[in-house]
Amino acid sequence: MKMKFSLQWLIFCCSKRTPKPSLKDDDEEDPWPEPRPHGYQLYPPPPPQTILSNRSDYISQLRFRKYWPPENTPDTPLFCLYRLYEYLVIDDVTGYRNTIEYFCKQRTWAVRHIPDPKDEDPARYAFIACLPALLKAAFNARIKMGLVRECPAIMSPEEAEAYRNMPEDEKTNEEEPDWVKNVKPLEQTLYMVSHDGAVMRRSDDPRASEYFKRINILMWGPHIHFTWSSMVFTAPPTVLMVISCRWLLM
Question: pTM for the complete prediction?
Answer without folding.
Answer: 0.73
